[in-house]
Design goal:
Number of domains: 1
Number of helices: 2
Helix content: 25-40%
Strand content: 15-25%
Order of helices and strands: EHEHE
CATH class: Alpha Beta
Strand order of the largest sheet: 1-2-3
CATH architecture: 3-Layer(aba) Sandwich
Largest sheet: 3 strands, parallel
CATH superfamily: NAD(P)-binding Rossmann-like Domain
Length: 72
């Protein structure tokens, strides 16, 4: 099976601001992937985006905040 290199992929990461999602986002950024980061915490998402951008990796990042909507 031929897989594209990480640097040639766009990866969507949910829960990007904590736990496995955070670690995956950092590792994928280091490998040069284009990232779509999804999280509920706007401040933490902004901090992560700034952290990755500050690493001078020149990546394409799209950060999306999500909201939980309850049906009553």
């Amino acid at each position: 099976m031929n897989l594209k290199k990480i640097s040639e992929q766009t990866i969507v990461i949910t829960g990007a601001t904590s736990g496995i999602g955070l670690t995956t986002a950092r590792m994928a950024a280091e490998k040069g992937a284009k990232l779509v980061l999804v999280a509920r915490n706007e401040e933490a998402l902004s901090n992560l985006t700034n952290e990755i951008n500050a690493s001078n990796l020149f990546l394409q990042i799209h950060a999306l905040q999500t909201w939980l909507i309850e049906n009553n």
